[in-house]
Specification:
Elements (H helix, E strand, L loop, with lengths): L7 H10 L3 E4 L8 H11 L4 E4 L9 E3 L5 H8 L4 H12 L6 H16 L4 E2 L8 E4 L21 E2 L2 E6 L6 E4 L3 E5 L2 E3 L7 H7 L5 E8 L3 H7 L9 H9 L4 E4 L6 E3 L4 E15 L2 E2 L5 E2 L2 E13 L5 E2 L10 H19 L3 E5 L9 E6 L6 H9 L10 E6 L7 H10 L3 H4 E7 L12 E8 L20 H14 L2
Parallel strand pairs: 1-2, 3-18, 4-12, 20-21, 21-23
Antiparallel strand pairs: 2-3, 5-17, 6-9, 7-8, 7-11, 9-10, 10-17, 11-14, 12-13, 14-17, 15-16, 19-20, 22-23
The structure holds flavin mononucleotide.
Length: 480
């Protein structure tokens, strides 16, 4: 495993060395034009793009940094996304050690956890330039208007930092921010998100907020990770990086931000200061409806002298966020298995915009086991918002959608094996009659047991191993 890049500049240099970055020196408009270019490049599996000359801004714009599996792995410093998961799994699996060697290994693991805690530094590049009050001007940044019906430019790749007013626990989340004017934006904290919960918990009705843009890729990824509320996403970033995230105190609010950020916005969000945000062309492939959201009033903007702005385009899948989502799918599998050890693997198809479908394979051991797993997933963190769950047997490859479709069509009696229930749904799901709440679909595509009202289950057709070996050995002889 390599050490992940320490800041956005190291990351850009690494991408360039690996042939994963293209510089565009032509003047290009952040208003729609960058989206169309990026969308074509993302959908053809192309490189990260550094727009050196965005129209009306002196700051370059980096996009598509996460757009392929290879770049997501480079970002995390791993060969495969499962390697990042294994690192976490190793900690979650810790048992009381036996013997000296195991004790030493255990201590090293604990040290890697202890070293994940962020540390504060006195001086930081992200504060080289300081604008306050009337000098704050978001117009300096090449903020994209992504899709034709978006009413304004949106900051799309921010790490938004708040603290729970009661416990003091930090939260870092990625929430889009629609520009209102030169010193305010909306804060798109959806119904089930922790940033929103922090605001709702504020007894005096407002909370300080800091926004970091242009981070090292692991910290940027961590902002999108669905950690439980009591866990600090910067701990996860430190753990995945193998070194703590360095923080610096903000200039005008009582918060800390990653010292390596390119750009920082500081300010306040209040419960009674809201407006109508959106519509926005979102990762569902549709425009999300305009609706009320709180306003972020910016008190200060700090940045590096030659700050690079980082952005992302979401839209009809697959878009760049696919690999952020896939990283989460892989990295969180060991944590999901802590509650459900019978799970072999799962897959959240990109085309299902992640919350629309989960395919899960299990070691089925008793009647109703598939239904047990469905209900447990509908009660687990952000997976609770999944609209449909397909359960297959342990030997089925959940990433092979053709095989999964075969099982769903072959193994399911729709009357017996389809569960329709209801529960909370993703904020952005436009299909249900009511927002936030509606139907859920569970499909049990496992083999059925006699107790599940099934006839004796037939044997699956599988060629015998000795014949397979024979044919492999003789393959060249057949001249095929
Ligand atoms: C590119 C991108 C944009 C996102 N935009 C939003 C958003 O506007 N609002 C939101 O609530 N979640 C958004 N998310 C999802 C959250 O970042 C994600 O659910 C995260 O876990 C939220 O953190 P929290 O659980 O600490 O609130 C976005 C994710 C990505 C990758």
């Amino acid at each position: 495993m390599a050490t992940p890049p320490r800041d956005l500049r190291e990351w850009i240099a690494l991408l360039e060395r690996e042939g994963e970055l293209r510089r565009i020196s032509a003047e290009v408009d952040p208003d729609l034009e960058i989206t169309e270019i990026t969308d074509r490049v993302v959908k053809s599996g192309g490189p990260a793009l550094l727009f050196e000359n965005p129209k009306s801004s002196s700051h370059p714009l980096l996009i598509n940094q996460f757009g392929t599996e290879r770049r997501m792995c480079l970002a995390l410093g791993v060969e495969t996304l499962d390697d990042a998961a294994a690192k976490l799994g190793d900690i979650l699996d810790m048992q009381p050690p036996e013997g000296l060697r195991e004790k030493v290994r255990g201590l090293l693991k604990l040290k890697s956890l202890a070293d994940s805690r962020p540390k504060t530094v006195a001086k930081a590049p992200c504060q080289e330039v300081f604008y306050e009050g009337a000098d704050v001007d978001l117009g300096r940044l090449p903020i994209q208007r992504c899709w034709p019906d978006d009413p304004a430019p949106f900051i799309t790749l921010p790490a938004v930092i708040t603290k729970d007013p009661k416990t003091g626990t930090r939260n870092v989340g990625m929430y889009r921010m629609q520009v209102i004017d030169k010193s305010s934006t909306f804060m798109h904290w959806q119904m089930h998100k922790d940033g929103r919960a922090d605001l709702l918990a504020a007894e005096d009705g407002r909370i300080p907020v800091a926004v970091a843009i242009g981070l090292d890729p692991v910290t940027a990824y961590s902002a999108s990770a669905p950690l439980p509320k009591h866990l600090d996403e910067l701990m996860l970033a430190g753990f995945l990086r193998g070194e703590p995230v360095e923080l610096v105190r903000c200039k005008t609010v009582d918060l800390e931000v990653p010292a390596n950020a390119e750009i920082v916005l500081e300010g306040w969000v209040a419960k009674d200061d809201t407006g109508i945000e959106g519509p926005f062309g979102d990762h569902t492939g549709y425009y999300s409806h305009a609706e009320p959201f709180p306003i972020f009033r910016i008190s200060a903007m700090t940045m590096r002298r030659d700050a690079i702005y980082a952005s992302i385009v979401v839209g009809k899948p697959p878009a760049e966020d696919a690999w952020l989502g896939k990283a989460t799918e892989r990295i969180f599998l060991p944590a999901v298995r802590m509650t459900l050890p019978e799970i072999v693997d799962y897959d959240l198809p990109v085309a299902g915009a992640f919350h629309n479908c989960v395919i899960v394979s299990i070691r089925k051991a008793f009647p109703g086991h598939a239904q047990k797993v469905m209900h447990a997933l509908w009660g687990l963190g952000m997976l609770s918002l999944s609209k449909s769950i397909v359960v297959v047997d342990e030997h089925v490859d959940v990433h092979d959608y053709a095989d999964v479709f075969f099982r769903v069509t072959a193994n399911v009696d729709p009357k017996r094996d389809v569960l329709i229930t209801e529960g909370p749904l993703d904020h952005l799901d436009h299909a249900p009659g009511r927002q936030f709440y509606g139907g859920k679909l569970g499909i049990d595509a496992t083999h059925k047991l006699p107790e599940e009202d099934a006839r004796p289950w037939p044997e699956e057709i599988v060629m015998s191993e000795d014949v397979k070996e024979l044919v492999t050995r003789r393959w060249v002889e057949y001249g095929l």
